[in-house]
Amino acid sequence: MAGGKAKKEKGKPQQQHMPYQGGISFHKSKGQHILKNPLLVDSIVQKAGVKSTDVILEIGPGTGNLTKKLLEAGKKVIAVEIDPRMVLELQRRFQGTPHSNRLTVIQGDVLKTELPYFDICVANIPYQISSPLTFKLLNHQPAFRAAIIMFQREFAMRLVAQPGDKLYCRLTVNTQLHARVFHLLKVGRNNFRPPPKVDSSVVRIEPRKPRIEVKQKEWDGFLRICFNRKNKTLGSIFRQKSVISLLEKNYRTVRALELGKEDSAKEVDTKMDFSSFGDDQGMEMDDDGDDDEMEVEDGEADGVQSEFKDKVLGVLKEGDFEEKRSSKLTLQEFLYLLSLFNKAGIHFS
C-alpha cells in the first residue's frame, strides 16, 4: 500500500477513508492506497524479474492484488501487513486456492519486525516509512538480490539523483553507498484507490556485493557536515568555527586514547553533537542558504584552534577539495576525502 499525506483544506471536511467493494475501508492517514490498475501490477512484477525459485518479501500487500501475481511468478511470498483487516482479507482471498500453502502472512509493523530470508522484495508502501524502511532493507543480512519499491516520486528521484542534480543530497549518497538504484517507471496518482495527492515512482534497489565497508557513525557525521550547506565550497564549510571546534574536540579525544593519558576517560565523555548539521534522512531539502556569518576568519580563532584549522584545511588542499562543493561530489570522492581526514587523525564520531 502506498500513500502520501495530504494537507487539510480549510472549510472542507476530510474524507478519512473510502470503502472497498469487499467492505474494507481504506484509511488515507495510514497510507492505504491500493493499486487498482492490473496492467501496472503486471508491469511491476515483470520489471522485478521474479524467478520461479524466488522467496518474495511483500510489504503492505493490502487486499492482495499484487500478491496474487507474485504467487504466480515465484516460489513463495512472505507478506508483512500491519492492518488486521487486510490480513483477514488476504487469508480469505487465497484460502482453498493452489497458492494458499505458498503464502505466509506476518501481521505487524515492518519496521519492528525481524525479517526472514528472502531473495527479492516487492513493495507498495506507506510513504511515511520510506526512509527507515529503505535503510532497514539495506542493512538486512544475508543480502537479497533486489528490492522493487513504490515511493513518492520526489523521494524516488532523490535516491537515483546524480552529482549536480537539484535533488542530490545526503540521502542519495547514503543510499548509493550501500546499493545501486535505478528508476523503473513513473506511476500516476489515478492508478490507486483512493488516489493520493502525489505521483509515485517505482525504483529497483540492488545491494552492492561486496559491500563498501565504512564505519557508519563516522560516515554519517562526515556527511552531515558536508551537506550542511551543499552548494557552498568545502573550504567554506570546514572553516566554520563550530565545525573546527567539534573536530578539534574529537581529535584531542582520539589523541588522548592513543597516548594512553590518565585523563583519557574524561576526554572520551566528550560527545560530538551533529544534530545541528542536518536533518534526518527524510524528504526535507538540504539547507542551501547562505551562512557566511557562521564562518570564522583566520584571525578570529585562538592560536590552538588556528593551528588545528590549518590541519583541517591542509587535508582539503591535499585532495584538491577546498573549492569543490558537496552537491557535485561523487560517492568515490566522498570516500576518498574521508580517508584523507582519517589518515590525518581527524575523525567524525
- What structural class do you assign from the helix and strand content? alpha/beta
Number of strands: 11
Shape: elongated
What order do the strands of the largest sheet run in, or round the barrel if closed?
6-5-4-7-8-11-9
N-C termini distance:
37 Å
**Main sheet properties:** 7 strands, mixed
Fraction of helical residues:
25-40%
CA-based gyration radius: 24 Å
Mean pLDDT: 83
User: What is the number of helical segments per DSSP (H or I, 4+ residues)?
Assistant: 12
Quote the beta fraction: 15-25%
- The quaternary structure here is single chain
Unreliable residue stretches:
3-21, 267-280, 287-302
Give the H and E element order. EEEHEHEHEEHEHHEEEHHHHHH
Describe the structure.
- The protein has helices at residues 38-48, 65-73, 84-94, 130-138, 153-160, 170-178, 216-226, 234-237, 241-259, 264-268, 303-318, 331-343; strands at 17-19, 25-27, 34-35, 55-59, 76-81, 103-107, 120-124, 146-152, 179-187, 192-193, 200-207.
- It is α/β, with parallel strands linked by helices.
- The strands form three sheets. A seven-stranded mixed sheet has the order 6-5-4-7-8-11-9, with helices on both faces. The chain has a two-stranded antiparallel sheet with strand order 1-2.
- β4, α2 (65-73) and β5 (76-81) form a beta-alpha-beta unit.
- The longest helix has 19 residues, at 241-259.
- The protein is elongated, with a radius of gyration of 24 Å.
- The protein starts with 16 loop residues before the first strand and ends in a 6-residue tail after the last helix.
- The relative contact order is 0.11.
- The model is unreliable at 3-21, 267-280 and 287-302 (pLDDT under 50).
